[in-house]
Request: fold
Amino acid sequence: MNTGINPSNSKSKFASGASGASVQAWRRETALLLGVSEPVARQFGDTGLIEVEGMPVTLHPLHGQPAGPWVATARVARPPAVKEADWCDALLLANTQSLLLTHAAFGLAEEGDAILVMRIPPEHDHPRFLSADLDGLVAMCNALSDGVSSRAGAAAQAVAAPDTLRGTEPTESESPELDATDEVAELIRGAALHLGASPEQAVETARTGSLELVGQRVGIVCDPDDEGLVVAIDLGDAFLDSTERCRIALAASLDLILQAGAAVGRTPQRCQLMARCALQGQSAHSLAARLHDLAALAAAMRAHQSHVPEAPALATSQR
Reply:
C-alpha cells in the first residue's frame, strides 16, 4: 500500500475540507490510495466495506459527515491453533499497547472473531490521512495474528509498546515522575484541583500522574506523540480471572471504545480500564470530568465483576 502523507502537498479536490465532498467520494478516494481497482473503490465508497489483505474492513463517519470523526473496524478470525483462553489474553494484552499508541482497541464478536475498532479524529479529514489510518489498522491486526500464531498468547509482542507504558504501573516503593510538558502538567494540576485535591496534592498529581478518585487508583501518562493523555485504572486481579470474564470484558469493550473511548486491557501485572484523552481543546474542567467519569465506570465494573456495565455518562465526554 502506498499511503505516504505530505500535508503540504495535499492540494487535491479534497484539500479545502469536507464542504464539497460526499462521504462516498471520500471513501472512494481513500480506497484508491490503498491501491485497489476503480470498481472496488466505487463499491467501498457506496458501502463502506472493503477487503484488505483478506481482512474485512469498514469505514463510516460517526455523524454522517466526511469532516469526521470516523470509525474504522477490521475483523480477525481466531487462528485454529490458538485456544480461546489464549486468544482472549492476546486481545487484552494488545489493548494495553494499542490504546497507548492510538485511539483503537480490540473487542470480541459473538462468534469469537476479534474486531479492532479505531476512532479517527476530525483532524484526519482527508482521504490521505484516512488511508494511512486504515493501513495502520490492518497492520495492527496482522501483527496480532502473527504474534498469536507464532506463540500462543504472545500479544505483548503484537503491538510495539514504548517504555512510557511503565508510567502506569509504579510499584508501591516508587514515585515516578510524569514525562509531561509544563503546559500539560498545569492542565493535570488544574484538573486535580477541580476534583477536590489540595494545592499540594494537585502539584503531586501533576508530578507523578497518579491520584485516587472515587476509591480508584488512576494513572496518567502522555502518549508518545504528545497528542493526548492515556488513563489507566486498576480493576483488580479478580476482574479477569476466568476465560468467561475475559470474553465478557472484550465483548463489552466494543461498546466502550465507541461510547466512552475506553476498553479493558491487561498487563503482566494487572487488569485495567484504559482510555485516551485528547489534549487539543482540553480544559482542566473537561479533563476533571473525564477522569471522574472513568473512575466511576471502573468502580462500577469492579462492583459487578460478572459483567461490564454500560457507560452512558461517558458518551458525551470523549475528550
